Amino acid sequence: MNDHAPTAQAHDSGHGLAHVMPIPILLAVFVALLILTAITVAVAGFDFGALNLWVAMGVATVKASLVVAYFMHLRYDHPFNAVVFIAALVFVALFLGITLLDTVQYQPDIERFQQEGVPL
Predict the structure, then answer these.
(1) Cα atoms found within 13 Å of the Cα of residue 70, Cβ hemisphere only
(2) Separation of alpha carbons 65 and 71, rounded Å
(3) Per-residue pLDDT averaged across 55-67, rounded?
(4) How far apart are CA 116 and CA 105, in angstroms?
(5) In terms of domains, do 92 and 72 share one?
(6) Could you give the number of structural domains in the chain?
(7) Neighbours of 39 (CB within 10 A)
(8) CA dist., res. 15 & res. 54, Å (int)
C-alpha cells in the first residue's frame, strides 16, 4: 500500500463546513431585511435634496452588512475577515465619494442637455 494514499481520516480535519445558525436568528435577519427593503422603497418617494444618494447607499450598506454578517457567517468567522470587509467598504465609499465630487463639475452640462436637448 502506498504511504501517500489518501484515507478517510486524512481528510477529516474535525471542522464542519459552516457555522450552524439558529432558525430564529435567520428569521430575525430576514424580517430586518424586509423592513429595510420597505424603508428603501419609502425613502425613494421623499426628496432629501443632495442627500438622496447617501441615504439610499446607507440603507443598502446596512442591508449588505446584515447579509454578510449572518447569511455569509462573517460574524462567526475570524476577526481579520471583518477587518477586510470594513476596509473594502471604506474603499468603495472613498471611490464613490471621489466620483461624486467629479460629477458636480459636469452637472450644469447635464442640466442644459436635459432642458434644451443640446448635445454635449
Answers:
(1) 19
(2) 10
(3) 91
(4) 19
(5) no
(6) 2
(7) 14
(8) 41
Under a CB-based contact definition with an 8 Å cutoff, are residues 109 and 120 in contact? yes
Residue 51 lies inside a defined structural domain of this protein: yes
Q: Does any domain span residue 105?
A: yes
Distance, in Å, from the CA atom of 75 to the CA atom of 66, rounded to the nearest integer, reads 9
Dist. CA 110–CA 120, nearest whole Å: 8
Q: What is the DSSP string of the chain?
A: --TT---HHHH--S--SSPPPPHHHHHHHHHHHHHHHHHHHHHHTS--GGGHHHHHHHHHHHHHHHIIIIIS-GGGS-HHHHHHHHHHHHHHHHHHHHHHHHHHHHHHHHHHHHHH----
pTM given for the model:
0.64
Place of cell 464613490: 96
pLDDT of residue 91: 93
The residue with cell 475577515 is: 81
Q: Are 71 and 29 in contact (CB under 8 A)?
A: yes
Domain, as residue range, for 32? 23-76
